[in-house]
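Have a think about this chain, tokens included, and walk me through the fold.
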Amino acid sequence: MRALSEHSGGADSPSIPDPPRPGRAPDEYFLAWILAVSALVSVATPILAATDLGGGFRVALSVIYLVLVPGVPVAALLRLPNRPISVTVAVALSLAVHLLSGLAQIKIGFWSPVGMCFAITVVSLCVTVMCSRIYSLKLSPTWLWSALVAGTRSSISSTLRMGSTFALLTALALWIWETRIIDLDAVGARGLIAVVSWRYFCALTLTLVCFAAGVRRRGGPDAIVCAVSSIALATILYQSVSVADDGAVVGTAWVHVGFIDYIGRFHALPLSLDARFSWSGFFDGGAALVDVAGLPDASALLLWSPLFFSVLMMIPVYIVGTLVTNNLRTAWVGVPVYLCGNWFQQDYFAPQAVAMVLYLSIVSVLLWSVRSARLPVSSALTWRAKATTMMRRIPGRPAGLGGCRTIAVEGTLVIIAAAMVVTHQLTPVLLIVTLILLTAVGMIRYRTLALTVGVLFVWWLSYGAPDYWTGHLHVILGDLGKVGSSLQSGVGARVSGDGAYHQMQYVRIAWTAAIALAATAGWWLLRRHKLAPASAVLVIAPFTLVLAQSYGGEIILRCFVYSMPVLAPLAAAAIMRVIPRTTTLSIVALVAALFLASVMLTTTRGLNTAFERNPHEVVSAARSLLDQAPRGTTMLPPNGEGVLRMSRVGEMRWPDGGVCRVWTFDCVSQFPADYIFLTSSQAAALEIPGLVPPGWLWDFADQLVESGMYRIKEENTNVRILERITFTPTGGN
């Protein structure tokens, strides 16, 4: 283990301790408080929902309920001898239960989110009582006060923590200042990096200094400083555009608001409206959350969704880092590396974000179960014999778990996987492939799990999504084996446009390749690690999806989305290998490396800011139009506008006859719409890739007005709404 520590990040780097002896008790203070908080949240949330009280506090409490109940008491009952694993199981199980309960209410035709909330609370409280008896916890006010005092003293007694608090508050103030003055209307072909100021970079530097100091603390990383600094880093990197605009980026998120709104109003799924309703778990659960939180719609959940999902992802990313590198410092460095490598922007308010959390939580548990168990060693001499032995071997039980609890853990994973199956169409396929490959290398104890998930997937495809696969069979089977076309649509077609924007696309590719190369070097350093075969499987498995699907031209992007949580800690192992061992120099070098990575993330993730943003003026104009337009109104955005589908799904429609490939006056004359909704984001989406000359969209609007077909209904800096004048045009056909 000492040799492994040296490979992972230096001789002074603390390695992961050996698995605890069976029966070792968990931290009583932590357990007492988390159970008490869970019980309090589980009681308060349905009461506030039933009495329609609480306002903003009720919304926050409902989100906390979503990730704590009933997962916390169930995870405590499992008595897993690893706190991070218990946390990720608690979060994933809670999410899974709420997704499945929302789906169940829709399928059985009995919609009562508050009633379901009470039922889940009763179960959660019963399990909490069982835990308190098993651990002999007296959850009295006196006990909890003692735990709070002890925890508070240990949390604030460090000079490092006090200094980090001041530095992080300063960084937050600088970041808020930046979001108030940044001119996002000036974003062009080079993206966000061209308009951020020194305030943004100073905020990043202060945050990274705190993180590096926490990682390089003598005696081992300071988990609180590292965690809080990572959350602050995610806030700066992921939330700047949304907060500055006061409107969530990515128009698809607003479409999901409309889907949830439909389910909340009609308590049913629309028939043949959208293929995504075939995997409606996210939308059903979202509608239930909106009801319990007392929100008018889900739009209030959009703004901070990237940060929310990123924080949930940090837990399993850290766990994967500890397991595949066996080094705490390296594991913590893997978290900001992951944040800086995740430019793909798939963490918005969407099913894939939740499915990703569930997937990585399952992976974390599987890796932990192998690392903490005895693994049979092959004595075969030939490669063929070694491969055969590897495929047949079964790891022992995880240390500290008996037969019943091992089965209970597997049952928990099945519940989490079931929620994933009904939520997203691609992630369950990846899970099945991953489980099969882990079985092939003998790195999984739960050998029937792949079969179980496969049966669940086929059953849901037959029962819950028959409309999709029967109507899109040519799409499902048409890409089988067409690796070249998938690569072309996933990479070649995306490197488009002229000039600066074309060059910046190559920056994205180069940054992803750099992380992959660093991860390869890190894996080579750790190649003798017990989990080296498993980590290789987790990186390779996503790329096998290229053999089956192009996924609308996004399959390569999704492959890196799925592999980045493992690439990041492996890359961190390579980074830590070249970081000097002297404390001061190591902090400076680590800050420099992570600052460069943060700049690259700002460049790559912010490249499409001009046409992905949804300023507050755009959202307000769309909401006003949707409130006023009669049922059956036809709307015509030139290249799609997600905010127009935030409500009244199925009531508003696009013009009959098709969609124009090139938007011209003749096309609009042929397929007239009642309203045409034009935005600055649409203009940027056409201009930056070089599809049209600058100002074309607004000239197009002026032409429509001058023709007498339309008049301006509303206009501001970012929006122009045209309303059709009722008469038969005489020209333009």
Remarks:
- The chain has 31 helices and three strands.
- The longest helix spans residues 499-525.
